[in-house]
Design goal:
This protein is 36% helix and 30% strand. With 182 residues, the chain is an alpha+beta fold. It has an eight-stranded antiparallel beta sheet with strand order 1-2-3-4-8-7-6-5. Helix 1 (2-21) packs across helix 2 (31-43).
Length: 182
């Protein structure tokens, strides 16, 4: 499909070039269309994230969507492939630099089924102050600082932003499974 679509534009480019150079032999050689279309096909990403990806993940990270562990595990496996590791009662996926509220996600995570929490989150390679500013500007959500041994911020919806290191932050939403919900 991409080749045909790219070839469609190439055809018009050659018509234009034929008019510019005339038909006096100064026209481009015949392998040019094949090489140009090959470059076009190879330059398109093989597995781009769907257009709805950021919207769905942002809604979950801001705790403004319903979700289930099975649904997120399936969604991440479908669009991000297999998890890169299982750690801290979560499956961690390569974030493919997905842009979430103006921040590039290094990794995304979802709780394992055996966990007592329902959790979806993102690891971002930016300081918490920068991530917080982007989220507040792009999504209109305000965070307040929570007192404690390290910087943490909480939104009115329950979304949490945690300072992990000088250059890393974790943004997540967690619901604890207390046994009173299906």
């Amino acid at each position: 499909m991409v080749y045909v679509y790219g070839h469609y534009y190439l055809r018009y480019a050659f018509v234009y070039l034929a008019r510019v150079f005339g038909r006096s032999g100064a026209f481009l050689p015949s392998p040019f269309p094949l090489l140009t279309s090959l470059v076009f096909v190879l330059s398109t990403p093989a597995h781009a994230l769907p257009s709805h990806f950021a919207d769905k993940v942002e809604a979950a990270l801001t705790c403004r969507s319903e979700w289930s562990t099975d649904w997120w595990r399936s969604y991440f496996r479908q669009h991000l492939n297999a998890p890169v590791r299982v750690w801290g009662e979560a499956e961690w996926f390569n974030g493919q630099s997905a842009e979430l509220a103006g921040n590039r996600a290094q990794e995304l995570f979802v709780n394992v089924p055996e966990s007592g929490a329902l959790m979806v989150g993102a690891l971002i390679n930016s300081p918490a102050a920068s991530v917080r500013k982007n989220i507040e500007e792009k999504m209109g959500i305000r965070f307040v600082e929570i007192p404690g041994p390290y910087p943490r911020f909480l939104s009115q919806f329950g979304s949490v932003l945690v300072h992990v290191s000088a250059e890393q932050s974790k943004w997540y939403c967690a619901r604890w499974n207390l046994g009173n919900r299906p």
